[in-house]
Amino acid sequence: MRRFAAPAGIDPLNKPVVVPAETLTEPVVVSDVAPAAARAAGPAYVVLAGISFSHFLNDTMQSLIASVYPILKDTYALDFAQIGMITLAFQFTASLLQPVVGHYTDKKAQPYSLAIGMASTFFGLLLLSAAHQYLVILVAAALVGLGSAVFHPESARIARLASGGRYGFAQSVFQLGGSFGTSMGPVLAALIVVPFGQGSIAWFSSIAFLAIVVLWRIGRWYAPQIKAKKTAAVQAHPDAPSSRRVAVALLVLVALLFSKQLYVSSLSSYYIFYLIDRFGVSTQAAQIYLFVFLAANAVGAFLGGPLGDRFGRKIVIWISILGALPFTLALPYAGLHASAVLSVIIGLIISSTTSSIIVFAQELVPHRFGMISGVFFGVAFGIGGLGAAVLGKLADHTSIEFVYQVCAYLPAIGLLAVFLPKLPRHAR
Fold it and tell me: What is the pLDDT of residue 227?
């Protein structure tokens, strides 16, 4: 084993780590950690703004799928299980391919893959606008999921490259665009799709085209950042967690992401039906209430990263998961206006953990940023898809209210955060 000083782009904690040589045979490595000069210069705000805006456009289009569920349900007489299968088709494609894309781009970065992947979303939207059979709807949803699978791992890497060393902040800016885009889907559905019908979804393909243009420009900035390097094994720092503790920590992070994502999926997929069934509100009014919850998610997602940079990611994960528990327990028993208030509080608290979980995982496995980002984004999408299908089946056999009574206990899984190791803080 040869000994090297830790090179830039290997360890976000500025400490050397063990990287098995057999797993990294002459890969093409992107310098994921900003070198000292870049950290001194600070974040590349224009690039961060561009990748966040692209995330906004990407997730706006994706959120349209869930937002038009009431229209598809009424038009094609679908049950809740079939609605859940649409979510599964979209999110299973995204979750299955994201780790694969991340693993591949760790070795051979593709600066223009983001723009190419967005073309899949473009065609998926056009197909969904014209689909008149359930199978075609599933295919259209899967195409949108494919675009997401290509987008997220590399865009998360670009956000890190542009961070200037402020990794939590950069991840939060990136997440803010996606969360805000997700919140816009119900509003656009209420204003455009509900009045003008399923065919109006085709209008949103223009958003996909705009995203392709922006991502192509970002690809031109990204291409010079790619450097071919040979990565050999380096000596582990004595304070670094053992490989066993790293494996345990990654499993805990997956479990925490499971609790957060399944609860959010229960609201994003079925909150509209819950409000309609329990309080008798109109579809458009229910979509506005969903927008309020998703907007709170966007704000929480932005706040979580800087708080993790300042106070440590572990404490943010503790507070954001367990802190939501009292409010999720109260939601199934609240009135309409109280439910709206509780949904805002829940969204603010529970979504603040996303950036901290992802950056924490990247710091545990610093030589596999793309794959780790892909795995955690993929797990998030997969949990959302499988959760939506399972919860839909449960709602068919019981009720939507019962589903929310069960899901209220999910944040209790946050107790597992006690098993996370304490990582040394990197230079700020």
Answer: 56
